């Protein structure tokens, strides 16, 4: 998977810098080409010469060194890379990257990079647990940056806990896994729907639901990470659409979602409907704001089309249709009925009354139920993790084996 891949390694000033030497050796053995940028501090731990010899390429440290070739070094390196790995990543480089500070060759390059970035943090366990460091990691992750979690054990400073740089083989396998997954769905169109629809009552009011869009956005992000051409159709959400989508279609009502979804579904191989579609809309939408009166106010609701059911009726051979079922009771029974009624291949069911499950939470607690009745019950995990497990499970065999 790493054959011919161009890996730009950033080495920062931590005692674990020596392990990065072994990571370079392993990357090269796996067929990757490696170029190294060291911070000044890193050169206190390992020499430039070591990385030059082990990578077989000149090492860059200084922004202001006399030029060998006429190109702007940090831009040239940023454009060259298929992936960037910062190992070890100190608390300092994580903070700078989270803020976008560009005060040396490495941090300046990081801003110019469009390829995926991996940080392998290494530091004292109390530093790693510090809220500032954890916040910076969260900020980077939210931007799509990958974090290779440090190991737990005896640290160079004598303390024990999480903070030890991941082992070189783990670092290399994280990159391998990334490139493997990145190829899995290449050329495959995946349609994801997310968030809730809103149904207007008058110009200032609407009927909505509690869906934040987090589950659907995590699914779209995961499909992008696996190399798919992803179209995300989303109701209103405060979230930023993931980078790398083929198309982002923003809709408000169930009717608008239906139009976008039916159009895109024709060319999609996998469709995952995580959106919380309103089942009803007000029969009439007032042109003017409804003024309050002394009497009760009734709003007559009309049925919305069931988009998923329509997709099930039109399903093409080989197309995979995955629905969601948010329930408050009789979870399995209702979920199974929905598989039948809507002609689904899988349904992801959750009991939204359970803590840590359902709407507006970072985590979810779901069961993935297949058409033939198999149930995979997942423990509570982040929506990002749930998204991975869903794609591990629902892909047809020909795509599963494409690694
Ligand atoms: N769904 C849809 N169109 C609708 C309603 C739901 O496409 N008008 C989809 C949702 O995106 C989800 C699945 O159907 O994937 C199940 O949604 P849910 O609201 O749980 O089920 P309903 O079919 O609406 O049934 P009920 O509300 O009775 O539970």
Q: Mind sketching the topology for me?
A:
Blueprint (H helix, E strand, L loop, with lengths): L5 E6 L5 H13 L3 E6 L9 H8 L3 E2 L12 H8 L2 E7 L1 H9 L5 H8 L4 E5 L3 H5 L1 H12 L3 E2 L3 E4 L5 E5 L3 H17 L4 E6 L4 E4 L2 E3 L6 H12 L3 E6 L12 E4 L3 H12 L4 E4 L6 E3 L18 E3 L3 H7 L6 E8 L3 H12 L3 E6 L11 E2 L2 E4 L4 E3 L3 E2 H12 L2 H4 L3
Parallel strand pairs: 1-2, 1-4, 2-3, 4-5, 5-6, 9-12, 9-14, 12-13, 14-17, 17-18
Antiparallel strand pairs: 7-8, 10-11, 15-16, 18-20, 19-22, 20-21
Helix pairs in contact: 1-2, 1-8, 3-5, 4-7, 9-13
The chain binds cytidine-5'-triphosphate.
Q: Any descriptors?
A:
403 residues, alpha/beta, Rossmann fold, 2 domains, eight-stranded mixed β-sheet, 14 helices, 24% strand, binds cytidine-5'-triphosphate
Concise structural overview:
This protein is of the alpha/beta class and 403 residues long. It has helices at 17-29, 48-55, 73-80, 91-99, 105-112, 125-129, 131-142, 168-184, 214-225, 254-265, 307-313, 331-342, 383-394, 397-400, and strands at residues 6-11, 33-38, 59-60, 83-89, 117-121, 146-147, 151-154, 160-164, 189-194, 199-202, 205-207, 229-234, 247-250, 270-273, 280-282, 301-303, 320-327, 346-351, 363-364, 367-370, 375-377, 381-382.
Provide structural commentary.
The chain has helices at residues 17-29, 48-55, 73-80, 91-99, 105-112, 125-129, 131-142, 168-184, 214-225, 254-265, 307-313, 331-342, 383-394, 397-400, and strands at 6-11, 33-38, 59-60, 83-89, 117-121, 146-147, 151-154, 160-164, 189-194, 199-202, 205-207, 229-234, 247-250, 270-273, 280-282, 301-303, 320-327, 346-351, 363-364, 367-370, 375-377, 381-382. By secondary structure, it is α/β, with parallel strands linked by helices. The strands form six sheets. An eight-stranded mixed sheet has the order 13-12-9-14-17-18-20-21, sandwiched between helices. 40% of the residues are buried. The mean pLDDT is 93. Bound molecules: cytidine-5'-triphosphate. The site of cytidine-5'-triphosphate has 14 residues, from helix 11 and strand 17.
């Amino acid at each position: 998977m790493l054959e011919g891949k161009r890996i730009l390694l950033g080495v920062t000033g931590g005692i674990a810098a020596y392990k990065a030497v072994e990571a370079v050796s392993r990357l090269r053995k796996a067929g990757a080409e490696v170029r190294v940028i060291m911070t000044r501090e890193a050169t206190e731990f390992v020499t430039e010469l070591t990385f030059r010899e082990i990578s077989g390429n000149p090492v860059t440290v200084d922004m202001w060194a006399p030029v060998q070739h006429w190109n702007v070094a940090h831009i040239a390196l940023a454009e060259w890379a298929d992936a960037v790995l910062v190992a070890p990543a100190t608390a300092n480089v994580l903070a700078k990257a989270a803020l976008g500070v560009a005060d040396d060759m490495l941090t300046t390059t990081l801003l110019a990079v469009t390829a995926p970035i991996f940080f392998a943090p290494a530091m004292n366990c109390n530093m790693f647990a510090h809220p500032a460091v954890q916040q910076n990691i969260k900020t980077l992750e939210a931007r799509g940056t990958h974090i290779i979690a440090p190991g737990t054990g005896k640290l160079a400073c004598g303390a024990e806990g999480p903070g030890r740089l991941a082992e070189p083989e783990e670092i290399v396998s994280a990159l391998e896994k990334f490139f493997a997954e990145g190829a899995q769905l290449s050329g495959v169109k995946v349609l994801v729907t997310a968030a809730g629809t809103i149904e207007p009552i008058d110009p200032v009011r609407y009927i909505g639901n509690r869906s934040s869009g987090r589950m659907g956005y995590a699914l779209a992000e995961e499909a992008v990470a696996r190399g798919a051409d992803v179209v995300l159709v989303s109701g209103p959400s405060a979230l930023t659409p993931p980078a790398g989508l083929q198309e982002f279609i923003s809709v408000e009502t169930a009717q608008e979602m239906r139009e976008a979804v039916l159009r895109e579904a024709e060319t999609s191989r996998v469709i995952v409907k995580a959106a919380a579609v309103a089942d009803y809309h007000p029969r009439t939408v007032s042109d003017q704001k409804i003024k309050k009166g002394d009497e009760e106010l009734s709003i007559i609701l009309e049925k919305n089309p069931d988009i998923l059911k329509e997709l099930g009726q039109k399903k093409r051979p080989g197309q995979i249709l995955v629905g969601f079922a948010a329930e408050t009771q009789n979870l399995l029974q209702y979920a199974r009925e929905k598989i039948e009624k809507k002609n689904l291949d899988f349904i992801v069911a959750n009991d939204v009354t359970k803590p840590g499950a359902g709407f507006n939470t970072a985590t979810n607690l779901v069961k993935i139920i297949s058409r033939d009745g198999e149930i995979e019950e997942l423990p509570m995990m982040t929506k990002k993790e749930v998204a991975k497990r869903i794609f591990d499970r629902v892909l047809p065999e020909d795509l599963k084996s494409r690694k």
